[in-house]
Design a protein that fits this description.
This protein is of the alpha/beta class. The chain has three domains: about 260 residues, 3-Layer(aba) Sandwich (Rossmann fold), CATH 3.40.50; about 190 residues, Rossmann fold, CATH 3.40.50; about 40 residues. Helix content is about 45%, strand content about 10%. α7 runs antiparallel to α14, α12 runs parallel beside α19 and α14 packs parallel to α19. The model has no long low-confidence stretch (mean pLDDT about 95). The structure holds 6-O-phosphono-beta-D-fructofuranose. One of its GO terms (cellular component) is cytosol. Keywords: Cytoplasm, Gluconeogenesis, Glycolysis, Isomerase.
Length: about 550
């Protein structure tokens, strides 16, 4: 049976027709008269996170209907298959076991390997952090340069930045991902070859950007007097492809293992998180894993209607597939979580941005929404205008942290006030009568410009504090949301064939850009041929 012919889908479609024009203002007015109030009926918690979804365009019938859809599409079975280590990535014939990386269950799949690698990481991180591991001149390490891209960059960068208040202030972390040399150059200008450790992270160890940056960094060390023998003091590798790491020149003892059953975008819990551990230390890294493991337990055990990843995933389906929302905004009211939206872009869009169903048929419904965002309050002064008054519906995840991680007074109340006020304003809007009063009798022309339609939905995710535990739980929440949605859309959330074609053509174009002879006019389309010719001419070729 196809998704759209399921009785659960049709029931939702019928319900959508009834509720599509209902205003949140009215839902609150009615719901707050009842006991328990609307907010109590539509707030759940799990793994230490609060999840207020009362400002969504749902009534008491909506969630049960969405849960029926989750059941009809086998969300529970897919979840259990993933945790059991079954092949849930069929195109690559792989199990998907990032959850095993944070499990403390000795019977979890690959428990021994995971534990051994974590111990190896911790021993190494302690040596670097306490100065036992030094650079080639005997000085302690002060700069950690993580070189990787996609999942080998975004997760470690996002977490290291978010947990800066747990970092060892003696160690400064840098992340280089872009093949644009400007990225590495910016870092080279800040580091010292005597006190820098490079962590080269690549599951495949063949990724063009990462290998180019890694080679340039090695040349930089060499040009600063570091001999080949001494390079070992300054390079470690993280990969599932030890042979390639060794070929690059990193000793096998300095290779940290990941496995093919960990997808890049789900890998920060593995040795891919070595830069995180170097920054915050093994104990806090363990706490990060423990927070994620707590969310894993919640996902497996909580009833579906009180299950954060399930409810979050279903709300996404509600807007994407019924309201036709094209995007989902993530607004962490936390500067520390600056890189969360870009991390989630890969997590959600690389996972569920697919058109082929598991059996190879093409979907006749939209899949992954465009994920985007910026920390509040910055976004308010940039794009929130459109969310308030544009004709496009954009659901929002507000993320609020109740306590500040810094000592500055007079900031945090303002930050939280903005977060809560935005969700209230987006929900309520401003009516024509209210606008008329504000415009006054002299300016009726202003009225349409200062009316706010409201009825703009949002979730508010509440963290008591920004700690390794709460961040771990938050990341795992989004990971499992992806599984819930991917299951309903019936796509493989764990492969990424879509990035292949660009990579293949990139190699062809690079060869044409750098070849001695100009490229034949018939090899590419006329636009690509002209762009290559322009770049060749500028480079004097
Ligand atoms: O962009 C495709 C991709 O394969 C991502 O899935 C992955 O996170 C990234 O490239 C980096 O890959 P690797 O870790 O193998 O260098």
């Amino acid at each position: 049976m196809t998704l759209k012919s399921l009785p659960a889908w049709n029931a939702l479609e019928a319900h959508f027709q009834q509720i599509r024009n209902t205003h949140l203002r009215d839902l609150f007015a009615a719901g707050d008269k009842e006991s328990p109030k609307r907010v109590e009926r539509f707030t759940i918690s799990g793994a230490g996170l609060g999840f207020d979804f009362s400002k969504h365009r749902i009534d008491d019938k909506t969630l049960p209907l969405l849960i029926d859809l989750a059941r009809a599409t086998g969300v529970e079975a897919r979840r259990d298959a993933m945790f059991a280590g079954e092949i849930v990535n069929p195109t690559e014939q792989r199990a998907v076991l990032h959850v095993a990386l944070r499990s403390h269950d000795v019977n979890a799949p690959f428990a021994k390997e995971v534990q051994a690698e974590r111990v190896k990481m911790a021993v190494f991180a302690d040596k670097v952090r306490n100065g036992t591991w030094t650079g080639h001149t005997g000085k302690p390490i002060r700069h950690i340069v993580n070189i990787g891209i996609g999942g080998s960059d975004l997760g470690p960068k996002m977490v290291t930045h978010a947990l800066h208040h747990f970092a060892d202030p003696k160690l400064k972390s840098y992340f280089v991902s872009n093949v644009d040399g400007a990225d590495l150059q910016r870092v080279l200008e800040q580091i010292d070859p005597e006190t820098t450790l490079a962590v080269i992270v690549s599951k495949t160890f063949t990724t063009q950007e990462t290998m180019t940056n890694a080679r340039s960094l090695r040349e930089w060390f060499a040009s600063n007097g570091v001999s080949e023998a001494n390079m070992a003091k300054h390079f470690v590798g993280v990969s599932a492809n030890t042979a390639e790491v060794v070929k690059f020149g990193i000793a096998e003892a300095n290779v940290f293992q990941m496995w093919d059953w960990v997808g890049g975008r789900y890998s920060l819990w593995s040795a891919v998180g070595l830069s995180i551990m170097l920054s915050i230390g093994p104990k806090h890294f363990d706490d990060l894993l423990a927070g994620a493991e707590r969310m894993d337990r919640h996902f497996r055990e909580a009833p579906l209607e009180r299950n954060l990843p399930v409810v979050m995933g279903l709300l996404g389906i509600w807007y994407r597939n019924f309201f036709g929302a094209q995007s989902q905004l993530v607004a962490p009211y936390s500067e520390a979580m600056h890189f969360l939206p870009s991390y989630l872009q890969q997590l959600e869009m690389e996972s569920n941005g697919k058109s082929a169903e598991l059996d190879g048929t093409m979907v006749d419904y939209p899949t992954a929404a465009v994920i985007w965002g910026e920390p509040g309050t910055n976004g308010q002064h940039a794009f929130f205008q459109m969310i308030h008054q544009g004709p496009t519906l954009i659901p929002i995840d507000f993320i609020a942290v109740l306590t500040a991680e810094h000592p500055l007074p007079n900031h945090h109340d303002k930050l939280l006030a903005n977060c809560f006020a935005q969700s209230e304003a987006l929900m309520l809007g401003r009516t024509v009568e209210e606008a008329r009063k504000i415009a006054g009798p002299d300016r009726p022309d202003l009225v349409p410009h200062i009316v706010f339609p409201g009825n703009r939905p949002s979730t508010t995710i509440v963290l008591d504090e920004l700690s390794p535990q709460s961040l771990g739980a938050l990341i795992a929440l989004y990971e499992h949301k992806v599984l819930v949605q991917g299951t309903i859309w019936n796509v493989n959330s764990f492969d990424q064939w879509g990035v292949e074609l660009g990579k293949i053509l990139g190699k062809v174009v690079e060869a044409d850009l750098t070849a001695d002879q100009p490229v034949a006019a018939t090899k590419h389309d006329s636009s690509t041929t002209a762009l290559i010719a322009k770049a060749r001419a500028k480079a004097g070729r």
